[in-house]
Structure prediction request, 92 residues.
Amino acid sequence: MINLEKPEQARVDGRTANQLRPMLCSRGLLERAHGSARWQQDNTLIMAAVYGPKPVSGKKEDPERATLEVLWKTKSGIAGLCSPRCLRFTPS
Prediction:
């Protein structure tokens, strides 16, 4: 909610109307991943990691194609999102 009477302190959390929430970004946090990063803005935290490439067996190997597998999980048990979910994408 924005307080239009006092634009210098327009938001409930003390930020001005043109001020962003504090942000933090760091990388290289996970030792076993080929790459990792963390992005935090206020109470929202996202962590990402890259593992691979994994070897492909026999007939499935095609140097012109790749498959991206994304696995996401919530930190706490939010209704409907408690179990890990996986998305696979192979460009044509």
Q: What stands out?
A: Residues 20-53+62-89 form one domain.
